[in-house]
């Protein structure tokens, strides 16, 4: 087969969508040397940086194809004027778009990944530009696609709920986790070094992800305040990750509750520090109100870190019974979950062991094989 991937999500600072594509593309191209793969991408600036982003995925059966154009410009124009994608990238047996949108007139068959329905379920939590793009482009994209891939049974149910006309096209392909990239760190010196680098106390709860509304961080901070009142020496709450949008309320809540000495923000965490930061945490907290899959809790499990998640969306599907599950909109429930994890070392030990086993069930090889079956079904 001649298979092309839209490589734009692989470029720059990756989001969850980019890591999902990276895991599936790397595994599939390695597992299927008999096929020819192409990474298609638009770029008009920083060409050397964009080529460097693509380079790790190139091998004997993987090539890159660059079109000189600003990606956002093409996406915007093609939403209103059907500028053929095939003008830039020709024809392949199949092209896979990992970020919701299939452009007009793609040469060959098409697959699109629709990760979730947050744009319909919680539109107030979606950045304005993204919401506009999905409002205008999602339905035409799903019409154009031969198959729609989504990350979880929950997301499949959500897509059918809002767009029942596309039910027959939908296939579930869960994401994976790399146990090479995410693994336990048992060296206390390494963990201490990372803590000192980021000014983190010996005991801490960790959130790692974008600071944005749907991650439910305001409720997490309020729940932490309840938890902290019950202990003489509460664990810190570490909110690690880059700013997304509408994050001012998150910082304001910390100040309003007088928690600036107990809640710390670390901004972006370097790749080399991730495993040690996760491994050193008392628990990983992820009380999001909506996720199509939820990779961060699985990554924490792969590091042997006990996990707390909300009961919302796909998160219980991903973690199974290997996590403390709390009610997303119930601050007291989240606070009780933090307290349980603080007090019960046996619970933490059990969740650590169960989480490691759970993470091993979600490999990128398994994910790539399921996706490859979708390609075979089409062709």
Brief summary:
This protein has 16 helices and 13 strands.
Number of strands: 13
Ends apart, CA distance between termini? 9 Å
- Main sheet? 7 strands, parallel
- Tell me, what's the shape? globular
Please report which band the strand proportion falls in: under 5%, 5-15%, 15-25%, 25-35%, 35-45% or over 45%. 15-25%
> Helix coverage percent of residues?
40-55%
Write down the CATH topology of the largest domain: Rossmann fold
Cα Rg: 21 Å
Task: Identify the CATH architecture of the largest domain.
Answer: 3-Layer(aba) Sandwich
Count of structural domains: 2
Q: Strand-and-helix sequence, N→C? A: EHEHEHHEEHHEHEHEHEHEHEHEHEHHH
Low-confidence stretches: none
Q: Describe the strand arrangement of the main beta sheet, using strand numbers.
A: 3-2-1-4-5-6-7
Give the CATH H-level superfamily of the largest domain: Glycogen Phosphorylase B
The residue-averaged pLDDT reads 96
What class, by secondary structure content? alpha/beta
In CATH, what is the class of the largest domain?
Alpha Beta
Number of discrete helical segments? 16
What would you say this structure looks like, in words?
By secondary structure, the protein is of the alpha/beta class. It folds into two domains: 2-176 and 363-378, 3-Layer(aba) Sandwich (Rossmann fold); 188-360, Rossmann fold. Helices cover 44% and strands 17% of the residues. It has helices at 16-31, 47-54, 71-80, 86-89, 118-121, 128-144, 153-162, 188-197, 217-228, 248-256, 271-279, 295-302, 315-319, 331-343, 345-360, 364-378; strands at residues 2-6, 36-42, 62-67, 91-97, 107-113, 147-150, 170-172, 204-208, 236-240, 263-267, 283-286, 307-310, 324-326. Helix 1 (16-31) packs across helix 16.
């Amino acid at each position: 087969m001649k298979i092309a991937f839209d490589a734009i999500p692989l470029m720059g600072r990756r989001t969850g969508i980019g890591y999902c594509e990276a895991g599936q593309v790397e595994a599939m191209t390695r597992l299927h040397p008999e096929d020819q793969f192409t990474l298609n991408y638009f770029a008009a600036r920083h060409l050397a940086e964009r080529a460097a982003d693509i380079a790790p995925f190139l091998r004997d059966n993987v090539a890159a194809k660059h079109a000189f154009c600003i990606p956002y410009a093409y996406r915007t124009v093609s939403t209103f004027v059907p500028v053929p994608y095939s003008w830039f990238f020709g024809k392949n047996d199949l092209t896979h778009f990992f970020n919701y949108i299939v452009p007009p007139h793609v040469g060959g068959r098409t697959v699109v990944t629709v990760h979730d329905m947050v744009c319909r379920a919680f539109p107030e939590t979606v950045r304005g530009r993204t919401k506009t793009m999905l409002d205008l482009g999602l339905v035409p994209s799903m019409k154009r696609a031969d198959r729609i891939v989504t990350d979880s049974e929950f997301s499949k149910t959500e897509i059918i709920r809002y767009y029942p006309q596309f039910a027959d096209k939908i296939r579930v392909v869960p994401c994976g986790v790399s146990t090479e990239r995410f693994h336990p760190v048992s060296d206390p010196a390494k963990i201490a070094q990372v803590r000192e680098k980021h000014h983190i106390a010996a005991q801490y709860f960790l959130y790692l992800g974008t600071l944005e509304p749907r991650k439910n961080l305001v409720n997490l901070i309020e729940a932490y305040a309840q938890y902290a009142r019950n202990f003489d020496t509460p664990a810190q709450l570490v909110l690690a990750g880059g700013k997304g949008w509408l994050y001012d309320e998150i910082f304001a809540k910390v100040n309003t509750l007088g928690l600036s000495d107990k809640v710390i923000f670390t901004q972006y965490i370097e790749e080399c520090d991730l495993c040690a930061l996760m491994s050193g945490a008392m628990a990983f907290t992820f009380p999001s109100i909506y996720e199509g899959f939820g990779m961060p809790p699985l990554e924490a499990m792969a590091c042997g870190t006990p996990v707390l998640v909300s009961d919302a969306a796909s998160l219980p599907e991903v973690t199974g019974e290997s996590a403390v599950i709390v009610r997303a909109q119930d601050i007291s429930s989240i606070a009780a979950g933090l307290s349980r994890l603080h007090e019960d070392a046996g619970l933490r030990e059990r969740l650590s062991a169960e989480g490691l086993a759970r993470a091993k069930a979600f490999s990128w090889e398994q994910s790539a094989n399921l996706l490859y079956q979708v390609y075979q079904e089409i062709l």
